[in-house]
User: Fold this.
Amino acid sequence: MKRVIGVGCLLAVLLPIAGCDWLDEQPNVPSISTTQKQAKSVFVIGAIPDQDPDKLQRLYPKLATYLEQALQVPVQYKPVTDYTAAVSAFRVGDLDMVWYGGLTGTQARLQVPGAEAIAQRDIDANFHSVFIANKKSGLQPLQNLQDLQTLKGRTFTFGSESSTSGRLMPQYFLAQAGVNLSDFQGQPGFSRSHDATLDLVQAGTYDAGVLNEQVWQSRVKAGTVNGDRVSVIWRTPAYYDYHWVIHPAVRERFGPQFVERVQTALLRLNPQKPEHQEILELFGANKFIATKSANYQQIEQIGREIGKIR
Assistant:
């Protein structure tokens, strides 16, 4: 009887130890706290889905790899479904830094106190939209802003409803010319992306439309614009557009100088380096330059005027 009791006591001592050893040997069973720490240690970037998804998928993982090497922290690109989702994800902290258009970037910053606009492409300080028309519409090149009135009674499509270059600024210039959305034939379309706008007008689904100039030039260069079917009829005046906005919480997670480190990494992208050149080419830029939130005051004002910012 004493021997049985002794073995039982020994097992009572050894089983908890063996159990602990088994857990220690399982690398794929992290505790909840470990998982949370790993999630917080990842710098998550995103972007508005303004172009062909395949192009976005080529671009942002490459940028994530570059930033990971430059910043020495894990970097993940997380795609979003639409412009609104890009703003919402930034507001709740699911995205740490996002490539926005002027309007969505302003919306995001206003919803997150302390958020900062830190960098833009060299082309974004003087950005333009282009109005295009299907050749069968008979619309001719416009000489000035007032000539936008020739679009009255025509079918017309914008890009995304929250696009700066595909909706906000074009609607602003149309209003200056005395053209309201109700002046088009039927309701104006919202194609969801610049590429889609071009494809719809080129196919004749709409008489005319508007998209950002950089996408137009990129498509012309790629040979996917049929000049016998579609052409540019007017180029807008310049305005500020795309930019990176970064969340203030990154300073707590990665250090007080992290925002400056990210900005420096973006500004150091060099077209003379092959691995950098590919990223810049996909962005349609020669380099990134510093920017600041104050540059988007006009965007905020116009956004409030048309009800996109409250």
About this structure: Residues 1-37 have pLDDT under 50 and may be disordered. DSSP finds twelve helices and eleven strands in the chain. The domain at 128-235 is CATH 3.40.190.10 (D-Maltodextrin-Binding Protein; domain 2). The chain has two domains: 41-124+241-305, 128-235.
